[in-house]
Amino acid sequence: xxxxxxLIAGNWKMNLDHLQSIAFVQKLAxxxxxxxxxxxxxxxxxxxxxxxxxxxxxxxSADKLPIxxxxxxxxxxxxxxxxGEIAAPFLAKLDCSYVIIGHSERRTLHGESDENVAAxxxxxxxxxxxxxxxxxxxxxxxxxxxxxxxxxxxxxAVLDSIPKGSDFVVAYEPxxxxxxxxxxxxxxxxxxxxxxxxxxxxxxGEEAAAATRILYGGSVKADNIAGFMRQPNIDGALVxxxxxxxxxxxxxxxxx
Length: 256
Ligand code: PEP
Fold this sequence. Notes:
The active site is at residues 103, 173. By secondary structure, the protein is of the alpha/beta class.
């Protein structure tokens, strides 16, 4: 998209412990550096498990690596009696640039509602961590309501919690495309991403809509990324499975 810095984001899910994370990030940085001559001006982000974040922070800051990072989830609360939860101020202290909120695995496996997603988004923004808000329809939704209705409703439900001028990222991830090897077509994804941008424009204004990055996610690989990146309303990708292979993820970040 126009004037928006593309974001290639790797969601590791529950993979790679803190020792493996160090080796991975080091190799990724080398791979990106090697390819500098054909490297797009993109932001490359990794989303490791919580227990890796301190190690990744130490490595990235010591070696000034061209990689940013974030967490896969965050608590709605800033502190207190919430056993097992991780607060947004903790992520900010670890220099997390982003936090994924409302991933379909959180929505389905952990029963997260649009209200939870809105509260987490608010908490992240209050701590200066940019929320990467995931929306997307299931195969059933697609059949019953078409592609755009559910993701647009999910996004509309969270936009009220975003103060004007805040930086946030949206990821359109059709649930049927996640981990299935069956990506949406670039044209299908573009259509929904355009609808999401209109929703931002309606609720937060044209300026916010023009500034906000909207990513596609769902079975993105090195050999299908370019088609998505050519779409005017797609500003990057959220990558699951293919983000666990250094060379594959590096190739996605170097899409042509
Ligand atoms: C995801 O879980 O965010 C995702 C897009 O997974 P995959 O790339 O494996 O489909």
